[in-house]
Amino acid sequence: MSNEQNAAPAIADMSDQMQIRLEKRAKLLESGRQAYPVGLLDAQGGRIAPNHIADVRAEYDPKLESGELTAGDETDHVVNVAGRVVFVRNTGKLCFASLQAGTNGDRIQAMLSLNEVGEQSLADWKSLVDLGDHVYVTGRVVVSRRGELSIMVREWRMAAKSIRPMPVLHKDLNEETRVRRRYLDLMVRPEARELVKKRALITRTVRRVLEDHGYIELETPVLQLVHGGATARPFRTHLNAFDQPMTMRIATELPLKRLIVGGMERVFELGRQFRNEGMDLTHNPEFTSMEAYCAYSDLEGMKRLTEGLFKAIARGICGCEEGRELISYQGQTIDMSGSWASRSLIEIVSERVGECVNMDTPIGRLRELCEAHDIEWQEGWGAGKLLFSLYDELGESTLVNPTFVCDYPEEVSPLAKRKDEDTRLTDRFELVIGGHEYANAFSELNDPVDQAGRFAEQVAAKGLGDDEAMGYDYDYVRALEYGMPPTGGIGYGIDRMVMLFCDQPSIRDVLLFPQMKPETITRAQIAEQVAGTCGLGVTDVDTIAADSAAGASAERDGESDMAKKLESGLTREQAFELLKKYNEDEFHIQHGETLEGLMRYYAATYDPENVDFWGQVGLLHDLDWEKWQDEKTHTVKAAELLAEAGANPELAHAIQTHTSDRNPDLPKPEKKMERVPFAADELSGLIQAAARMRPSGSVTDMPLKSLKKKFKDKRFAAGCDRDVIRMGAELNDMELDDLLASVLEAMKAIAPVGDYNAKAKETGE
């Protein structure tokens, strides 16, 4: 090991490092030391509870600050400290290490002197301890000559050997690594640990405020016979004990309102919900919500509760003074102080379309307004659904300060009580802040006859193909038949709430383990990991690989060859110059760059060894399109051009697969590297066209639902072949919605690449 070890290799390049560390683990065991001991023991074998670094610093940092202790001072206080080695400098007879432990990432310096630990122990430290290892150290609290609080070690022991090198502390992890391997993010980034603590504080505040208002926290089933409480597509499962289909809950509403019927007059639940839908900046299939219900309350009661809750969080998380609850979110200043505005949905729509509209506006006119603003509508939609679509697309994003948007059409509110003055509208509000919804509240429907009719309408909608419609819940209607008192109810998206108060742009940043597409695990990786188990009675590697879902799929798909390094024969600069040689239209060049970005994005997950090769497949996929647009010639000519440029034939082969649907003589996409561009090429064009229609001109603020609408509207971007996109989903063993969500997420990740309209605005074109 080198004398100074203050850096670590890149995560992707660790095989040799791992082998060395495994050898050190073996040496520890051979020498009689434990690599993973149960705990720290004294000479008599008794368990010693280590001192927390934070406690040691809390005791001695004030003495340093006051001058009671100065550089070079020593104490007689002996401590036992455990921590991860995040810095080490081995210099002759005196070694230094920084140990890190605790949720706050507290650190303290350990000093190992030849005179204190002895020759053999110091040599073992130098040869066996690596960055990332957890160690126990026992020694006196001292102050180094440079004035740093330290432990003069007299004895050290391994607590847990790190087989993989930890990331570089002062080098940012890429987003894929941060999100997929959250443990690394928490290990090296203080901001990640701080976010975890803030989320915990937010949920504690929610519970405290609700409990202060007399609510009791309860738990309801996650597995349900009939999904309800929201319009969303559920996850389906099967209960073997009863041979009964079941669903994961999409909301906690209906069970909680059954409790209201039973006399539990103020109830809430904070828990997980599951909706089998796409993902974007504000949506994850598994998320946390809080729903609360209060008997003999109504919408006004829910408004007062919500104002108080959000202001309490602003004070606790953002440090706001009472009466001055101003926070910053993504560059916007949001004023939560005072009384919040209440506006009707219809009022907002009228303002956005520039004319007075309401439930009496002719259907034909509302359809015209939708078409004028590129909003898809469907036959059978009434005025309520059309008005809601106009609000959803045009109005919500314009509301910055907290606004209660009220009076939703009954057509989109199957569980809300109708308004007395206009039964076509419901007593409902959504709380919108910074252009996003944070709460949904009703004066709850408690008429069992009306509720039965609305459930029946939902069943009819399901029969017409609406996979988000609710089922008919006989027992819930039966509960209402026993009499539910007038009730106010509200639901909050906790993840979005954390995003707001922690100023985070994406839901993935506030979830410890967001849903992601499984990474490809190869047989070779599994073999490497289980190599040390030989002789322990384990099964063979092939059986283990088959048992690993990701690994098994990778092997079945013939993707195990991805481990080999692929060379295109061209540098990226040469590839780009080749693209410009045969393409003069800036649009075609930018499209190549877009697909290059997407290919590199997906390669980071599926084939990190060959990110550059994947990138060139994307960059050059339409190399010949501008000059040779005949379907029989396209990519055939590209192969000739690539051969002339000295490119590896594998590059041309991969490129040609994405046009095999139009030219049966070309090779079919088999590898993941070939299936991705087939799926992403047409779809990226559709996403770019949709982005141009947005005020920002950017994909970054495009919700998935907007993309889904554009996909269904065959009149929009008609040149983007929907059938090819569907084929791409099938080729990648994905549901269409999942493909749309995945490529949209990837487009956002590589932006501003592909944001043509936004780029034009910046350049004044």
Question: Rg, please?
Answer: 31 Å
Tally the helices.
28
E-strand count: 21
CATH topology of the largest domain: BirA Bifunctional Protein, domain 2
What is the average per-residue confidence, as pLDDT, rounded to a whole number? Answer: 88
Overall geometric form: globular
Largest sheet: 8 strands, mixed
Helix content: 40-55%
CATH class group of the largest domain: Alpha Beta
Total of domains: 4
Walk across the major sheet and give the strand order.
9-13-14-21-20-19-18-17
Distance N to C terminus: 57 Å
Low-pLDDT segments: 1-14, 550-562, 759-765
Query: Beta fraction of the residues?
Result: 15-25%
Instruction: Provide the structure class.
Output: alpha+beta
CATH 4th-level superfamily of the largest domain: Bira Bifunctional Protein, Domain 2
Based on the structure given, which CATH architecture of the largest domain is correct?
A: 2-Layer Sandwich
Write the topology of this structure.
Elements: E1 4-5, H1 15-30, E2 40-41, E3 47-48, H2 53-66, E4 74-91, E5 94-101, E6 106-113, H3 114-117, H4 119-128, E7 134-143, E8 149-160, H5 175-180, H6 182-188, H7 190-212, E9 216-217, E10 223-224, E11 236-239, E12 244-248, H8 253-261, E13 266-274, E14 286-295, H9 299-318, E15 326-329, E16 332-335, E17 341-344, H10 345-353, H11 363-372, H12 383-395, E18 403-406, E19 428-433, E20 436-443, H13 448-463, H14 474-481, E21 487-493, H15 494-502, H16 523-530, H17 541-547, H18 549-556, H19 572-582, H20 586-606, H21 611-619, H22 636-644, H23 649-656, H24 672-692, H25 704-712, H26 722-731, H27 736-750, H28 756-763
Parallel strand pairs: 6-8, 9-13, 17-18
Antiparallel strand pairs: 1-4, 2-3, 4-5, 4-7, 5-6, 7-8, 10-12, 11-12, 13-14, 14-21, 15-16, 18-19, 19-20, 20-21
Helix pairs in contact: 6-7, 7-9, 7-15, 10-12, 11-12, 13-14, 16-17, 20-21, 20-24, 20-27, 21-23, 22-23, 24-26, 24-27
